[in-house]
């Protein structure tokens, strides 16, 4: 339950890696207003990391269970902390409070502060997922390119992967070659790197976790909830098999 004047945001890591949830929740709380409390949740069903269409499909079910848990506790909004935004529309069907995906939030934030941006994500095989989201979110005119550093999600925190240096190099290439004014980081596991990269590069480097938390606060402050008219109405009552 929330305290008077407190906003509670349910930040869900759709993969099953608790250490990544802790990193994400820490970054989310650091970016939040003083009156906002972050509840970090880890999916209990799905995959250790989300690096493809199959991973996204099975992760969505576990993520939706954490949406239900957050609703039961009275959370004011949900953030899906995976750059593929898995199950986003299903979560919006399920919940009456705002639900934000970090990819959608980051792309909108980038479009507010720059005419063009590029996305830098993890593995090359996931680039197509980001490219699909760019089209789905109407960002084709803003997003110049989706790039990858070919570092696995579960290797992001390993010193030998030199993630900061690799990311910095790819971001410099994007700045030099893509004609952009901002960069979107394409993984929630990069959330703690955005500020340093932005300082180093001299341009906005946007972490979707922070962007989604701040947008969620704004929606809650405006008293806006998810529309239950049309396709985002609550799911129809019927027999279902769940985990």
UniProtKB/TrEMBL annotation:
Transmembrane segments: none annotated. It holds the Pfam family Asp_Glu_race. InterPro entries: Asp/Glu/hydantoin_racemase (IPR015942), Hydantoin_racemase-like (IPR052186), Iso_Racemase_Enz_sf (IPR053714). Belongs to the HyuE racemase family. This is Aspartate/glutamate racemase family protein.
């Amino acid at each position: 339950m929330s305290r008077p004047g407190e906003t509670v945001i349910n930040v869900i890591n759709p993969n099953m890696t608790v250490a990544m949830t802790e990193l994400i929740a820490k970054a989310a709380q650091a970016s939040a207003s003083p009156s906002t409390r972050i509840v970090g949740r880890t999916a209990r069903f799905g995959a250790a990391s989300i690096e493809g269409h199959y991973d996204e499909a099975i992760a969505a079910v576990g993520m939706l269970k954490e949406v239900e848990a957050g609703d039961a506790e009275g959370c004011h909004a949900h953030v899906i902390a995976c750059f593929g935004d898995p199950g986003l529309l299903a979560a919006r069907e399920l919940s009456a409070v705002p639900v934000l995906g970090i990819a959608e939030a980051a792309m909108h934030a980038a479009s507010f502060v720059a005419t063009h941006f590029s996305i830098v994500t993890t593995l090359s095989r996931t680039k197509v997922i980001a490219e699909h989201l760019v089209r789905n979110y109407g960002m084709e005119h803003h997003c110049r390119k989706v790039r990858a550093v070919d570092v696995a999600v579960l290797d992001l925190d390993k010193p030998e992967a030199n993630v900061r240096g690799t990311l910095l190099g790819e971001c410099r290439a994007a700045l030099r070659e893509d004609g952009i004014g901002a960069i979107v980081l394409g993984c929630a596991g990069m959330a703690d790197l955005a500020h340093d990269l932005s300082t180093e590069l001299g341009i906005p480097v946007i972490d979707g976790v922070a962007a989604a938390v701040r947008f969620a606060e704004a929606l809650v402050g405006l008293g806006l909830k998810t529309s239950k008219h049309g396709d985002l109405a609550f799911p129809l009552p019927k027999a279902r098999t769940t985990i």
